[in-house]
Amino acid sequence: MSVDNTYQSLERELANDDPWRLDDNPFERERHTQLLRLSLSSGAVSNGLEIGCAAGAFTEKLAPHCKRLTVIDVMPRAIGRACQRTKRWSHISWAATDILQFSTAELFDLIVVAEVLYYLEDMTQMRTAIDNMVKMLAPGGHLVFGSARDATCRRWGHVAGAETVITILTEALTEIERVQCQGQSADEDCLLARFRNPERSSIRPNSRA
């Protein structure tokens, strides 16, 4: 799927009141419940980063548990909707950008990235995005990842999904826990995983590009 087609598709979906049925679908509610549990497994978050906020459904759940929270999304419209949904909190920073371009000297003790990376065009971009995330993860920090499975993502026209990304993440991070969420339809089947950054701050130099 091309970048232009992806943006157009996301714009159409964001025009709906509840895009991706994140509020009223039992599968999505369970997915968010598990994402939050994994995110808070080490307690409250000092400095968190959420990559891809959609309409802010998960941001609203995560924000009360963070001292500081940075949220990025490639779609300005998504940022606008998430801002409205979470306007009662003043400790959230927003940036309309993607994970390939986002850069900061800050280190985060929690990074959450769910249902995002399969929108990237190819494996080179996926590896670049993962390397960027790992560089921003503090030593001892946790990264929580979620995605539809490889087979589902490829059926949707994407390059890869959960199993592929988890394999790449384990080149730099230690996997702590993995959870499967499954709903009623074939598309409602995803993997969630929590990783810990032991000491290294980037993917090993000998990992394949």
Automatic annotation (TrEMBL):
<dbReference type="Pfam" id="PF05401">
    <property type="entry name" value="NodS"/>
</dbReference>
<dbReference type="InterPro" id="IPR020944">
    <property type="entry name" value="NodS"/>
</dbReference>
<comment type="similarity">
    <text>Belongs to the NodS family.</text>
</comment>
<keyword id="KW-0489">Methyltransferase</keyword>
<keyword id="KW-0808">Transferase</keyword>
<keyword id="KW-0536">Nodulation</keyword>
<dbReference type="InterPro" id="IPR008715">
    <property type="entry name" value="SAM-MeTfrase_NodS-like"/>
</dbReference>
<comment type="function">
    <text>SAM-utilizing methyltransferase involved in nod factor synthesis.</text>
</comment>
<dbReference type="InterPro" id="IPR029063">
    <property type="entry name" value="SAM-dependent_MTases_sf"/>
</dbReference>
<protein>
    <recommendedName>
        <fullName>Nodulation protein S</fullName>
    </recommendedName>
</protein>
